[in-house]
Amino acid sequence: xxxxxxxxxxxxLVTGVCFAEVGHDVVCMDVDNNKIAKLQQGQSPIxxxxxxxxxxxxxxxxxxxFTTNVNEAAxxxxxxxxxxxxxxxxxxxxDLQYVLAVAKNIGQHMQEYKIIVTKSTVPVGTSDKxxxxxxxxxxxxxxxxxxLSNPEFLKEGMAIKDFMQPDxxxxxxxxxxxxxxxxxxxxxxxxxPEQFIAMDIxxxxxxxxxxxxxxxxxxxxxxxxxxxxEKLGADIENVRQGIATDRRIGPYFIRPGCGYGxxxxxxxxxxxxxxxMQVDVEPKLLAAVETVNHDQKRVLFHKINDxxxxxxxxxxxxxxxxxxxxxxxxxxxxxxxxxxxQLWQAxxxxxxxxxxxxxxxxxxxxxxxxxQYCPSAVDALKNADALIIVTEWDEFKEHLQQITQHLxxxxxxxxxxxxxxxxxxxxxxxxxxMGRSLTYxx
Length: 442
Ligand code: NAD
Description:
Rossmann fold
Protein backbone atom coordinates (compact mmCIF):
# COMPACT_ATOMS: atom_id res chain seq x y z
CA UNK A 1 0.00 0.00 0.00
CA UNK A 2 1.19 3.56 -0.63
CA UNK A 3 2.02 5.66 2.41
CA UNK A 4 3.22 9.24 2.84
CA UNK A 5 4.61 10.46 6.14
CA UNK A 6 5.15 14.11 7.02
CA UNK A 7 7.92 14.63 9.56
CA UNK A 8 11.06 12.46 9.55
CA UNK A 9 11.73 12.73 13.29
CA UNK A 10 11.67 9.96 15.90
CA UNK A 11 8.10 8.97 15.11
CA UNK A 12 7.83 9.71 11.38
CA LEU A 13 11.13 8.10 10.46
CA VAL A 14 10.52 4.95 12.48
CA THR A 15 6.98 4.68 11.08
CA GLY A 16 8.24 5.09 7.53
CA VAL A 17 11.09 2.63 7.84
CA CYS A 18 8.90 0.01 9.51
CA PHE A 19 6.05 0.29 7.02
CA ALA A 20 8.63 -0.10 4.22
CA GLU A 21 10.09 -3.12 6.01
CA VAL A 22 6.72 -4.93 5.85
CA GLY A 23 6.42 -4.19 2.13
CA HIS A 24 4.57 -0.88 1.85
CA ASP A 25 5.71 1.81 -0.57
CA VAL A 26 6.70 4.81 1.58
CA VAL A 27 7.58 8.46 0.97
CA CYS A 28 8.79 10.52 3.96
CA MET A 29 8.58 14.28 3.60
CA ASP A 30 10.31 16.80 5.86
CA VAL A 31 10.94 20.54 5.64
CA ASP A 32 14.49 20.09 6.99
CA ASN A 33 16.73 19.93 3.89
CA ASN A 34 19.78 18.68 5.81
CA LYS A 35 17.83 15.87 7.41
CA ILE A 36 16.39 14.74 4.09
CA ALA A 37 19.81 14.95 2.34
CA LYS A 38 21.31 12.73 5.06
CA LEU A 39 18.43 10.26 4.89
CA GLN A 40 18.70 10.02 1.10
CA GLN A 41 22.31 8.88 1.68
CA GLY A 42 21.09 6.24 4.13
CA GLN A 43 22.27 8.09 7.25
CA SER A 44 19.88 8.41 10.17
CA PRO A 45 19.89 11.82 11.87
CA ILE A 46 18.91 10.17 15.18
CA UNK A 47 20.24 7.25 17.20
CA UNK A 48 17.77 4.40 17.54
CA UNK A 49 18.85 0.75 17.79
CA UNK A 50 18.24 -1.14 14.54
CA UNK A 51 17.16 1.95 12.59
CA UNK A 52 20.23 2.34 10.38
CA UNK A 53 20.09 -1.25 9.14
CA UNK A 54 16.40 -1.02 8.19
CA UNK A 55 16.93 2.38 6.61
CA UNK A 56 19.73 1.18 4.34
CA UNK A 57 17.92 -2.04 3.46
CA UNK A 58 14.64 -0.42 2.48
CA UNK A 59 16.27 2.46 0.61
CA UNK A 60 18.19 -0.09 -1.43
CA UNK A 61 15.01 -2.10 -2.03
CA UNK A 62 13.32 1.04 -3.42
CA UNK A 63 10.41 0.85 -0.93
CA UNK A 64 11.46 4.02 0.91
CA UNK A 65 12.01 7.53 -0.46
CA PHE A 66 12.74 10.86 1.18
CA THR A 67 11.72 14.23 -0.17
CA THR A 68 11.20 17.89 0.68
CA ASN A 69 8.67 18.20 -2.14
CA VAL A 70 5.12 18.58 -0.81
CA ASN A 71 3.48 17.96 -4.16
CA GLU A 72 5.28 14.63 -4.56
CA ALA A 73 4.36 13.68 -0.99
CA ALA A 74 0.70 14.64 -1.26
CA UNK A 75 0.26 12.68 -4.46
CA UNK A 76 2.04 9.52 -3.35
CA UNK A 77 0.19 7.81 -0.53
CA UNK A 78 -3.44 6.89 -0.11
CA UNK A 79 -2.47 7.29 3.56
CA UNK A 80 -1.14 10.71 4.49
CA UNK A 81 0.37 10.43 7.97
CA UNK A 82 1.02 13.62 9.94
CA UNK A 83 3.94 12.92 12.31
CA UNK A 84 5.35 16.39 12.90
CA UNK A 85 6.15 17.87 16.30
CA UNK A 86 3.56 19.27 18.72
CA UNK A 87 5.81 21.22 21.10
CA UNK A 88 4.42 23.04 24.11
CA UNK A 89 2.99 26.47 23.43
CA UNK A 90 3.84 29.32 25.82
CA UNK A 91 1.02 28.30 28.18
CA UNK A 92 1.90 24.58 28.04
CA UNK A 93 -0.86 23.53 25.65
CA UNK A 94 0.15 21.73 22.44
CA ASP A 95 1.27 23.99 19.60
CA LEU A 96 -0.61 22.74 16.53
CA GLN A 97 0.94 25.03 13.93
CA TYR A 98 3.02 22.26 12.30
CA VAL A 99 0.14 19.77 12.22
CA LEU A 100 -2.21 22.31 10.63
CA ALA A 101 0.48 23.48 8.18
CA VAL A 102 0.79 19.90 6.94
CA ALA A 103 -3.01 19.58 6.64
CA LYS A 104 -3.01 22.74 4.53
CA ASN A 105 -0.22 21.42 2.31
CA ILE A 106 -2.07 18.18 1.74
CA GLY A 107 -5.28 20.03 0.87
CA GLN A 108 -3.47 22.31 -1.56
CA HIS A 109 -1.74 19.52 -3.46
CA MET A 110 -3.85 16.35 -3.32
CA GLN A 111 -5.53 15.31 -6.57
CA GLU A 112 -7.60 12.33 -5.44
CA TYR A 113 -9.21 10.72 -2.35
CA LYS A 114 -6.85 10.52 0.64
CA ILE A 115 -6.95 9.17 4.16
CA ILE A 116 -5.32 11.77 6.41
CA VAL A 117 -4.03 10.24 9.63
CA THR A 118 -2.91 12.25 12.65
CA LYS A 119 -0.08 10.33 14.31
CA SER A 120 1.35 13.29 16.22
CA THR A 121 0.16 13.55 19.83
CA VAL A 122 -2.63 16.12 19.65
CA PRO A 123 -5.31 17.40 22.03
CA VAL A 124 -8.89 16.23 21.71
CA GLY A 125 -10.59 18.15 18.92
CA THR A 126 -7.51 18.51 16.69
CA SER A 127 -8.91 16.13 14.07
CA ASP A 128 -11.87 18.52 13.73
CA LYS A 129 -9.40 21.34 13.06
CA UNK A 130 -7.54 19.22 10.51
CA UNK A 131 -10.87 18.48 8.80
CA UNK A 132 -11.75 22.19 8.70
CA UNK A 133 -8.39 23.11 7.14
CA UNK A 134 -8.82 20.43 4.48
CA UNK A 135 -12.39 21.52 3.75
CA UNK A 136 -11.21 25.10 3.28
CA UNK A 137 -8.39 24.09 0.95
CA UNK A 138 -10.59 21.73 -1.03
CA UNK A 139 -13.62 23.99 -1.36
CA UNK A 140 -12.96 24.51 -5.11
CA UNK A 141 -11.98 20.92 -5.86
CA UNK A 142 -14.55 18.14 -5.75
CA UNK A 143 -12.40 15.76 -3.72
CA UNK A 144 -13.36 13.66 -0.73
CA UNK A 145 -11.13 12.62 2.14
CA UNK A 146 -11.24 10.86 5.50
CA UNK A 147 -9.54 12.03 8.69
CA LEU A 148 -8.41 9.47 11.27
CA SER A 149 -6.47 9.57 14.51
CA ASN A 150 -3.74 6.97 15.05
CA PRO A 151 -1.65 7.88 18.11
CA GLU A 152 1.81 6.41 18.39
CA PHE A 153 2.94 4.53 21.51
CA LEU A 154 6.55 3.69 20.61
CA LYS A 155 9.31 4.27 23.16
CA GLU A 156 12.57 5.86 22.10
CA GLY A 157 15.37 3.33 22.47
CA MET A 158 12.93 0.50 21.66
CA ALA A 159 11.12 2.25 18.83
CA ILE A 160 11.66 -0.30 16.06
CA LYS A 161 10.58 -3.22 18.22
CA ASP A 162 7.60 -1.31 19.58
CA PHE A 163 6.43 -0.41 16.09
CA MET A 164 7.02 -3.85 14.58
CA GLN A 165 5.44 -5.68 17.52
CA PRO A 166 2.87 -3.25 18.91
CA ASP A 167 0.87 -4.00 22.06
CA UNK A 168 -2.02 -2.37 20.25
CA UNK A 169 -2.84 -0.10 17.34
CA UNK A 170 -5.44 2.53 18.20
CA UNK A 171 -7.40 4.09 15.34
CA UNK A 172 -10.09 6.72 15.81
CA UNK A 173 -12.60 7.86 13.24
CA UNK A 174 -16.13 7.44 11.95
CA UNK A 175 -15.37 6.37 8.39
CA UNK A 176 -15.68 2.59 8.45
CA UNK A 177 -14.05 2.12 5.05
CA UNK A 178 -11.00 4.23 5.97
CA UNK A 179 -10.66 2.31 9.24
CA UNK A 180 -10.76 -0.95 7.31
CA UNK A 181 -7.98 0.34 5.04
CA UNK A 182 -5.93 1.10 8.15
CA UNK A 183 -6.52 -2.42 9.41
CA UNK A 184 -5.09 -3.75 6.15
CA UNK A 185 -2.11 -1.39 6.37
CA UNK A 186 -1.26 -2.60 9.88
CA UNK A 187 -2.16 -6.25 9.22
CA UNK A 188 1.47 -7.44 8.82
CA UNK A 189 2.29 -6.10 12.31
CA UNK A 190 -0.64 -7.60 14.20
CA UNK A 191 -0.42 -10.98 15.91
CA UNK A 192 -4.03 -10.99 17.09
CA PRO A 193 -7.02 -9.19 15.59
CA GLU A 194 -7.96 -7.68 18.95
CA GLN A 195 -4.72 -5.68 18.92
CA PHE A 196 -6.39 -3.37 16.43
CA ILE A 197 -8.63 -1.11 18.50
CA ALA A 198 -11.01 1.12 16.56
CA MET A 199 -12.92 3.84 18.39
CA ASP A 200 -14.34 7.33 18.00
CA ILE A 201 -11.81 10.01 17.13
CA UNK A 202 -11.94 12.00 20.39
CA UNK A 203 -11.36 8.92 22.54
CA UNK A 204 -8.44 7.97 20.32
CA UNK A 205 -6.86 11.40 20.75
CA UNK A 206 -7.34 11.22 24.52
CA UNK A 207 -5.99 7.65 24.74
CA UNK A 208 -2.46 8.81 23.96
CA UNK A 209 -2.51 11.43 26.71
CA UNK A 210 -4.07 8.93 29.11
CA UNK A 211 -1.26 6.43 28.46
CA UNK A 212 1.54 8.95 28.98
CA UNK A 213 -0.13 10.51 32.03
CA UNK A 214 -0.53 7.05 33.61
CA UNK A 215 3.14 6.20 33.04
CA UNK A 216 4.32 9.57 34.34
CA UNK A 217 2.10 9.08 37.40
CA UNK A 218 3.72 5.73 38.15
CA UNK A 219 7.18 7.31 37.97
CA UNK A 220 6.26 10.24 40.20
CA UNK A 221 4.57 7.86 42.63
CA UNK A 222 7.68 5.73 43.11
CA UNK A 223 9.90 8.81 43.26
CA UNK A 224 7.79 10.35 46.01
CA UNK A 225 7.76 7.02 47.80
CA UNK A 226 11.55 6.82 47.48
CA UNK A 227 11.86 10.05 49.46
CA UNK A 228 9.56 8.69 52.13
CA UNK A 229 11.51 5.42 52.26
CA GLU A 230 14.81 7.23 52.60
CA LYS A 231 13.61 9.31 55.54
CA LEU A 232 11.89 6.37 57.24
CA GLY A 233 14.95 4.13 57.11
CA ALA A 234 13.59 1.75 54.46
CA ASP A 235 15.08 0.68 51.11
CA ILE A 236 12.91 1.63 48.12
CA GLU A 237 14.42 -1.21 46.02
CA ASN A 238 13.05 -3.75 48.49
CA VAL A 239 9.70 -1.98 48.58
CA ARG A 240 9.63 -1.90 44.77
CA GLN A 241 10.21 -5.64 44.58
CA GLY A 242 7.56 -6.15 47.18
CA ILE A 243 4.90 -4.32 45.19
CA ALA A 244 6.02 -5.29 41.66
CA THR A 245 5.03 -8.89 42.25
CA ASP A 246 1.41 -7.82 42.71
CA ARG A 247 -0.08 -8.33 39.27
CA ARG A 248 -2.41 -5.39 39.77
CA ILE A 249 0.64 -3.15 40.06
CA GLY A 250 3.23 -4.88 37.88
CA PRO A 251 6.99 -4.29 37.55
CA TYR A 252 7.07 -1.54 34.94
CA PHE A 253 7.64 2.17 35.44
CA ILE A 254 8.13 1.89 39.19
CA ARG A 255 11.90 2.35 39.25
CA PRO A 256 13.02 5.26 41.39
CA GLY A 257 15.33 7.74 39.71
CA CYS A 258 16.12 11.38 39.17
CA GLY A 259 12.92 12.25 37.33
CA TYR A 260 11.36 11.62 33.94
CA GLY A 261 12.32 13.64 30.87
CA UNK A 262 12.09 13.23 27.13
CA UNK A 263 9.97 14.85 24.50
CA UNK A 264 6.69 13.26 25.60
CA UNK A 265 5.87 12.86 29.31
CA UNK A 266 6.57 16.44 30.44
CA UNK A 267 4.84 18.05 27.48
CA UNK A 268 1.91 15.63 27.35
CA UNK A 269 1.11 15.77 31.08
CA UNK A 270 1.16 19.54 30.84
CA UNK A 271 -0.96 19.63 27.67
CA UNK A 272 -3.53 17.29 29.27
CA UNK A 273 -3.70 19.61 32.29
CA UNK A 274 -4.39 22.54 29.99
CA UNK A 275 -7.08 20.59 28.13
CA UNK A 276 -8.74 19.66 31.44
CA MET A 277 -8.73 23.24 32.67
CA GLN A 278 -10.27 24.45 29.41
CA VAL A 279 -13.31 22.30 30.18
CA ASP A 280 -13.42 23.34 33.86
CA VAL A 281 -11.93 20.17 35.32
CA GLU A 282 -9.20 20.82 37.87
CA PRO A 283 -6.51 18.18 37.23
CA LYS A 284 -5.20 17.86 40.79
CA LEU A 285 -3.40 14.57 40.27
CA LEU A 286 -1.66 15.68 37.06
CA ALA A 287 -0.46 18.87 38.76
CA ALA A 288 1.05 16.78 41.56
CA VAL A 289 2.72 14.41 39.07
CA GLU A 290 4.49 17.39 37.49
CA THR A 291 5.48 18.99 40.80
CA VAL A 292 6.97 15.75 42.11
CA ASN A 293 8.95 15.34 38.90
CA HIS A 294 10.21 18.92 38.98
CA ASP A 295 11.50 18.41 42.52
CA GLN A 296 12.92 14.96 41.82
CA LYS A 297 15.20 16.37 39.13
CA ARG A 298 16.83 18.44 41.87
CA VAL A 299 17.30 15.75 44.54
CA LEU A 300 20.67 14.55 43.27
CA PHE A 301 22.15 18.05 43.36
CA HIS A 302 21.06 18.51 46.98
CA LYS A 303 22.77 15.25 47.94
CA ILE A 304 25.97 16.37 46.20
CA ASN A 305 25.84 19.86 47.68
CA ASP A 306 25.22 18.52 51.18
CA UNK A 307 28.09 16.07 50.93
CA UNK A 308 30.50 18.85 49.98
CA UNK A 309 29.19 21.23 52.69
CA UNK A 310 27.47 23.54 50.18
CA UNK A 311 30.74 24.41 48.47
CA UNK A 312 31.24 23.03 44.99
CA UNK A 313 33.52 25.81 43.76
CA UNK A 314 36.42 24.34 41.85
CA UNK A 315 35.15 20.77 42.18
CA UNK A 316 35.17 18.47 39.14
CA UNK A 317 32.48 15.83 38.65
CA UNK A 318 32.41 12.84 36.36
CA UNK A 319 28.93 12.59 34.84
CA UNK A 320 27.78 9.32 33.32
CA UNK A 321 24.80 9.76 31.04
CA UNK A 322 23.38 12.79 29.27
CA UNK A 323 20.39 11.36 27.36
CA UNK A 324 17.03 11.33 29.13
CA UNK A 325 17.14 7.52 29.12
CA UNK A 326 19.40 4.77 27.75
CA UNK A 327 19.51 3.76 24.07
CA UNK A 328 18.67 7.19 22.75
CA UNK A 329 20.54 10.42 22.02
CA UNK A 330 17.47 12.50 22.88
CA UNK A 331 18.18 15.11 25.57
CA UNK A 332 14.84 16.92 25.50
CA UNK A 333 13.86 17.67 29.13
CA UNK A 334 16.63 15.31 30.32
CA UNK A 335 17.36 15.39 34.08
CA UNK A 336 21.05 15.83 33.16
CA UNK A 337 20.27 19.32 31.85
CA UNK A 338 18.84 20.49 35.17
CA UNK A 339 21.75 18.98 37.09
CA UNK A 340 24.39 20.48 34.78
CA UNK A 341 22.93 23.95 35.18
CA GLN A 342 22.91 23.56 38.98
CA LEU A 343 26.50 22.31 39.07
CA TRP A 344 27.74 25.12 36.84
CA GLN A 345 25.91 27.70 38.88
CA ALA A 346 27.62 26.35 41.98
CA UNK A 347 31.02 26.76 40.32
CA UNK A 348 31.73 23.10 39.51
CA UNK A 349 33.16 21.58 36.33
CA UNK A 350 31.87 18.45 34.61
CA UNK A 351 33.60 15.66 32.70
CA UNK A 352 30.72 13.99 30.87
CA UNK A 353 30.36 10.72 29.04
CA UNK A 354 27.35 9.31 27.21
CA UNK A 355 27.62 6.47 24.67
CA UNK A 356 25.58 8.35 22.03
CA UNK A 357 24.36 11.74 23.25
CA UNK A 358 27.60 13.77 23.31
CA UNK A 359 26.93 15.25 19.86
CA UNK A 360 23.47 16.34 20.95
CA UNK A 361 24.91 17.84 24.15
CA UNK A 362 27.48 19.71 22.08
CA UNK A 363 24.66 21.06 19.92
CA UNK A 364 22.76 22.23 23.02
CA UNK A 365 25.62 23.58 25.18
CA UNK A 366 28.33 24.33 22.62
CA UNK A 367 31.90 24.67 23.87
CA UNK A 368 32.27 25.71 27.49
CA UNK A 369 35.22 25.62 29.88
CA UNK A 370 33.17 23.88 32.55
CA UNK A 371 32.06 20.97 30.35
CA GLN A 372 34.40 18.42 28.86
CA TYR A 373 33.09 15.58 26.67
CA CYS A 374 35.03 12.38 27.38
CA PRO A 375 35.54 9.52 24.94
CA SER A 376 34.78 6.81 27.53
CA ALA A 377 33.20 6.28 30.93
CA VAL A 378 36.64 5.61 32.43
CA ASP A 379 38.13 8.80 30.92
CA ALA A 380 35.39 10.83 32.56
CA LEU A 381 36.47 9.52 35.99
CA LYS A 382 40.06 10.69 35.82
CA ASN A 383 40.89 13.07 38.69
CA ALA A 384 37.24 13.87 39.36
CA ASP A 385 36.04 14.55 42.90
CA ALA A 386 33.03 12.23 42.55
CA LEU A 387 30.96 10.32 40.02
CA ILE A 388 27.35 11.20 39.25
CA ILE A 389 25.14 8.75 37.33
CA VAL A 390 22.11 10.20 35.59
CA THR A 391 21.29 7.71 32.80
CA GLU A 392 21.28 3.96 33.37
CA TRP A 393 23.26 2.73 30.36
CA ASP A 394 24.08 -0.96 30.86
CA GLU A 395 27.78 -0.49 30.13
CA PHE A 396 28.21 1.59 33.30
CA LYS A 397 27.75 -1.53 35.41
CA GLU A 398 31.01 -2.91 34.02
CA HIS A 399 33.15 -0.08 35.35
CA LEU A 400 32.65 -0.34 39.09
CA GLN A 401 36.24 -1.46 39.72
CA GLN A 402 37.72 1.47 37.78
CA ILE A 403 35.84 3.97 39.90
CA THR A 404 38.12 3.37 42.86
CA GLN A 405 41.21 3.65 40.66
CA HIS A 406 40.49 6.92 38.89
CA LEU A 407 38.45 9.19 41.16
CA UNK A 408 40.32 11.37 43.65
CA UNK A 409 38.20 9.83 46.36
CA UNK A 410 35.68 7.07 45.57
CA UNK A 411 32.28 8.76 45.89
CA UNK A 412 29.22 7.92 43.77
CA UNK A 413 25.95 9.80 43.52
CA UNK A 414 23.80 7.25 41.73
CA UNK A 415 20.59 8.79 40.36
CA UNK A 416 19.42 5.45 38.95
CA UNK A 417 20.28 2.92 41.66
CA UNK A 418 22.52 1.01 39.26
CA UNK A 419 24.66 -0.68 41.86
CA UNK A 420 24.15 -3.11 44.68
CA UNK A 421 25.05 -1.23 47.88
CA UNK A 422 26.74 -4.28 49.39
CA UNK A 423 29.04 -4.63 46.39
CA UNK A 424 29.89 -0.94 46.46
CA UNK A 425 30.48 -0.97 50.17
CA UNK A 426 32.92 -3.86 49.78
CA UNK A 427 35.02 -1.55 47.58
CA UNK A 428 35.02 1.19 50.23
CA UNK A 429 33.09 3.55 48.00
CA UNK A 430 30.95 6.30 49.52
CA UNK A 431 27.64 5.65 47.86
CA UNK A 432 24.57 7.83 47.66
CA UNK A 433 21.55 6.48 45.78
CA MET A 434 17.84 7.20 45.54
CA GLY A 435 15.44 6.13 48.29
CA ARG A 436 17.80 3.82 50.10
CA SER A 437 18.01 4.97 53.66
CA LEU A 438 21.61 4.15 54.27
CA THR A 439 24.26 6.27 52.70
CA TYR A 440 26.74 3.52 52.32
CA UNK A 441 29.57 5.74 53.50
CA UNK A 442 32.68 4.92 55.42
P1 NAD B 1 10.67 15.39 16.02
O1 NAD B 1 10.87 16.78 16.47
O2 NAD B 1 11.75 14.37 16.21
O3 NAD B 1 10.31 15.38 14.46
C1 NAD B 1 9.38 16.25 13.88
C2 NAD B 1 9.79 16.48 12.44
O4 NAD B 1 8.75 17.19 11.75
C3 NAD B 1 11.06 17.32 12.27
O5 NAD B 1 12.01 16.60 11.50
C4 NAD B 1 10.58 18.58 11.53
O6 NAD B 1 11.54 19.10 10.64
C5 NAD B 1 9.37 18.03 10.80
N1 NAD B 1 8.43 19.05 10.33
C6 NAD B 1 8.01 20.20 10.92
N2 NAD B 1 7.13 20.83 10.15
C7 NAD B 1 6.93 20.08 9.05
C8 NAD B 1 6.12 20.20 7.89
N3 NAD B 1 5.31 21.26 7.72
N4 NAD B 1 6.18 19.24 6.96
C9 NAD B 1 7.00 18.17 7.13
N5 NAD B 1 7.79 18.00 8.19
C10 NAD B 1 7.76 18.94 9.14
O7 NAD B 1 9.32 14.90 16.71
P2 NAD B 1 8.94 13.41 17.22
O8 NAD B 1 9.64 13.11 18.48
O9 NAD B 1 9.04 12.47 16.06
O10 NAD B 1 7.40 13.64 17.58
C11 NAD B 1 6.41 13.83 16.59
C12 NAD B 1 5.05 13.70 17.25
O11 NAD B 1 4.88 12.37 17.74
C13 NAD B 1 4.83 14.61 18.46
O12 NAD B 1 3.49 15.00 18.51
C14 NAD B 1 5.15 13.71 19.63
O13 NAD B 1 4.50 14.11 20.81
C15 NAD B 1 4.61 12.38 19.15
N6 NAD B 1 5.23 11.20 19.74
C16 NAD B 1 6.57 11.18 19.98
C17 NAD B 1 7.17 10.04 20.51
C18 NAD B 1 8.65 10.01 20.81
O14 NAD B 1 9.06 9.10 21.53
N7 NAD B 1 9.45 10.91 20.28
C19 NAD B 1 6.38 8.91 20.80
C20 NAD B 1 5.02 8.96 20.51
C21 NAD B 1 4.45 10.12 19.98
